[in-house]
Design brief:
150 residues; alpha+beta; three-stranded antiparallel β-sheet
């Protein structure tokens, strides 16, 4: 006779556990969605930094290749822009600024800096602020024997 009483008691426990599991699942699902949007928003930052690093390095390499500082600065700026505008970068919406400091003399160092500003995706959902400008830079020294080519 006590057997039906135990079954009814177990049925009540199952209903309350089922309701708690639904609530936990809803909270966990919401957390997973917010984390997924957060991880997706890091992709443009990583791509922009990679493109800026590549452009600054290419700029510095071209800066060190010419004995004429004026021509070297023009070539370095052009190659940095071509690197940033390439199809592989996939950085639509990112703003870039390229700065070239040509060598001041024979065998002197010159440098290239590429600054970038990435728009924040899912800003309304995540409530993030704009991170501002970041930059990547390289210093390049032309070799003395190349500087004497004139």
């Amino acid at each position: 006779m006590k057997l039906p009483f135990l079954v009814a008691k177990n049925a009540t426990i199952c209903k309350s556990e089922r309701g708690q599991a639904l609530a936990e699942t809803a909270l966990f699902s919401t957390l997973v969605i917010i984390m997924a949007f957060g991880l997706l928003s890091w992709i443009p930052f990583h791509r922009a930094r990679t493109a800026a690093t590549s452009a600054a390095y290419a700029c510095a390499q071209f800066l060190s290749q010419s004995p004429d500082p004026g021509r070297a600065a023009r070539n370095a700026y052009a190659i940095a822009q071509q690197t940033l505008d390439a199809d592989w970068s996939a950085t639509l919406g990112v703003s870039y600024q390229v700065q070239v400091a040509p060598p001041s003399g024979t065998g002197e160092p010159g440098g290239c800096a590429v600054s970038y500003n990435v728009p924040v995706f899912f800003n309304g959902l995540l409530g993030l602020n704009s991170p501002g400008w970041a930059s990547e830079w390289f210093v390049s020294r032309s070799e003395t024997w190349k500087a004497k080519w004139r």
